[in-house]
Structures are given as structure tokens and as C-alpha cells.
Design a protein that fits this description.
The chain has 126 residues and is of the alpha/beta class. It has 5 helices and 5 strands, in the order βαβαβααββα. It has a single domain (2-122), classed as Glutaredoxin, CATH 3.40.30. A hairpin with a 5-residue loop joins strand 4 and strand 5 (106-108). This is Thioredoxin domain-containing protein 17.
């Protein structure tokens, strides 16, 4: 029931967000540092959060779109002008960050490793 989308940079992210159907399933964006050949991010907090998020998604019984967004390598991310930091739609301060698209809810950093917080983020809107 979870549809996965992989977006590799800011341009892909921007193009994807422009095509999101507002009447479609909820879209959650997971922003993480780029991965090496072994599939491991340079960001230690992202490495810690990913298996928790993945296990949660494996058990999720809801129709959602989960977009993995690669924010780039460490130097690109650390640059204060990084578009993921400056864009009004994201305003990222840390990674990992999960945001509910077109909503105000977000989990940042170590919050992404807490199953109860993931549960609240993924709950249906009333």
C-alpha cells in the first residue's frame, strides 16, 4: 500500500512536487544524505533512522506515497545556500527530516527513530 519514489536531487524534487495530485494519497518526504556504493549514507543520523523508518513502512496498512529525497553529499548539504535549506517548501535544518507534504507536521533528526512519532505523523487527517 506504500508507493515508494526516489528523488536524487533538488531538481527531481521540484519536478516531482509540481506533479503531486492534491486529491491523491498523502505524500511524505524523507530527506536524507546521499549514499555510497554500499547503500550507506554519509549522515550517521540518517543511517540510524533508516531501518526504523523502513520497518515502520513495511507494517503500514495505509495508502501513502513515501518519497526518499537525496539532499546530496556532505559539502553540498552543509552549504548554507543549499536549496533544501533555503526553499520555502522545505526549510530543512537537519537531516533526516520527514515532512507531510502540504502540511505542517514534520519529524527531524532523532525524532525519525521514534515509532510513536512516526505513527502520529502517518495517521489520517481528520
Amino acid at each position: 500500500m506504500v508507493t515508494f519514489v526516489n528523488l536524487k536531487d533538488f531538481e527531481e524534487f521540484s519536478n516531482y512536487t509540481a506533479s503531486i495530485d492534491p486529491k491523491g494519497p498523502p505524500v511524505l518526504m524523507y530527506f536524507s544524505g546521499s549514499k555510497n556504493a554500499e547503500g550507506r549514507s554519509w549522515c550517521p543520523d540518517c543511517v540510524e533512522a533508516e531501518p526504523v523508518v523502513k520497518a515502520f513502512l513495511d507494517e503500514l496498512k495505509r495508502n501513502v506515497i513515501f518519497a526518499y529525497v537525496d539532499v546530496g553529499d556532505r559539502d553540498y548539504w552543509k552549504d548554507k545556500a543549499c536549496p533544501f535549506r533555503t526553499d520555502s517548501r522545505t526549510k530543512l535544518l537537519v537531516i533526516p527530516t520527514i515532512i507531510k507534504w502540504k502540511g505542517v507536521q514534520r519529524l527531524e533528526g532523532s525524532q525519525c527513530t521514534k515509532r510513536d512519532l512516526l505513527q502520529m505523523l502517518f495517521e489520517e487527517d481528520d
